Amino acid sequence: MKGPGGRWCTLDSRLLLRDVVAASELFNQRALELVCSALGLATEEVEVTPGQRPVMRMNWFRNSCRSSGVTVRYSSRGRTLRRRAMKAR
After folding, report:
1. If DSSP states are collapsed to H, E and C, what string results for 33-87?
2. Whole-prediction pTM value?
3. CA-to-CA distance for 43 and 67, rounded, in angstroms?
4. CB–CB of 15/1 below 8 Å?
5. What span, in angstroms and rounded, lies between the C-alpha atoms of 41 and 4?
6. Which long-range contacts (CB under 8 A, 24 or more apart) does 12-19 make?
7. Alpha-carbon distance 5 to 69, whole Å?
């Protein structure tokens, strides 16, 4: 970029990255809000890494009788796939 004196200089990419990350987070938050409101879902904050900012995620099955069924089915499929993989060895 050209500086005020007409000389070429470089950008400090740290400042640019900070602004790009902030814009990305704002976009992701708004997209999540729109999707959740259209589907009638809620969002929740989840602490992925202790000491860092929480991550937002959709609450797909919260307080749903279906959630326990999904968890049970997922667990049984996982066991079945692991058994098949062990037999194939």
Report:
1. HHHHHHHCCEEEEECCCCCCCCEEEEECCCCCHHHHHHHHHHHHHHHHHHHHHHH
2. 0.49
3. 16
4. no
5. 51
6. none
7. 68
CA distance to 44, 51, 59, 71, 83, per residue, from 76 (Å):
27, 34, 23, 9, 11
- For 8, the 3-state DSSP assignment is strand
CA distance 86 to 23: 46
Residue with token string 């970029």: 1
Walk along the chain (89 residues) and give the pLDDT tens digit of each residue.
Answer: 777 888 888 877 888 898 999 899 899 989 988 988 888 888 888 888 888 888 888 877 555 555 555 566 666 777 787 888 888 77
Return d(Cα 69, Cα 59) in angstroms, integer.
Answer: 16
